[in-house]
Amino acid sequence: VTLRQAQGSDTDGLVAIVTGGASGIGAAIAHRLHDDGVTVAVLDRDTSNADERFAAFTADVSDRASVDAAVAAVAERFGRIDIVVNNAGIGAQGDIAANDDDEWARVLSINVTGIARVTSAALPWLRKSPSAAVCNTASIASTTGLPQRALYSASKGAVAALTRAMAADHLREGIRVNAVNPGTADTPWVGRLLDSAADPAAERAALEARQPHGRLVSPDEVAAAVAYLVSPSAGSTTGTFIEVDGGMAQLR
Ligand code: NAD
């Protein structure tokens, strides 16, 4: 039992779906919400590494049937859904010419339409919750021009616009929708990119040096922002973004 659990919190007893919750930022969000007393359902296409303290539901956010089945299974198991954290996402490198149409469609289907699939499946449950909240993982790429990230940036820019549109649509239903914009975070995804470099240690040092605060963002820092945005403490906050990027967005 953690200190926060012992003290009780305003999210105690709520049920959350965390997509991409088996790795990286999503796993940190799952842990943080669990510490805050939330019952966490991890929804991931690969649940083999999901923490066994959480119920894991295998689903691909780019496949409507698998999303509908997983969200129905969460509702059946826990009887409610109060929070949806749309965090599953994949990367893409290069300029606009670097990826073919199939890859554009695949990345947008996961990073953007995936949010619509998961959240619309959960909507009937969110409408019944006294404390409904959605948080999307966007990116620094949604607000700043990152070189060699054209498709990824397009997808995350769409996540930002979608966050505002969802916030407007569901305002009167009491469903709040916000997002976080992480900078480069220390996750298995970034680890894989570094490992593909000729000298991973040197590449990591260079990447850290490019961050305004001289280090990568910790997934726990992103999780803390998400935990705030989905909690009743943020009850008057919707359609907003928290930058968790060491100040990178201010410098560009
Ligand atoms: P990660 O690769 O470590 O974890 C992503 C998780 O999402 C994995 O468990 C993966 O299985 C799951 N996933 C991927 N595609 C899926 C699909 N179609 N259906 C269901 N699950 C799927 O990545 P991460 O670094 O933790 O990134 C998480 C989110 O944060 C992504 O949306 C990413 O764009 C965003 N983000 C990451 C960084 C960073 O530097 N790591 C920065 C800004 C934003």
From TrEMBL:
Name by which UniProt lists this protein: SDR family oxidoreductase
PROSITE patterns in UniProt: ADH_SHORT
Keywords: NAD, Oxidoreductase
Species this chain originates from: Microbacterium algeriense
Similarity field: Belongs to the short-chain dehydrogenases/reductases (SDR) family.
Positions of the Ketoreductase domain: 14-183
Top-level taxonomic group: Bacteria
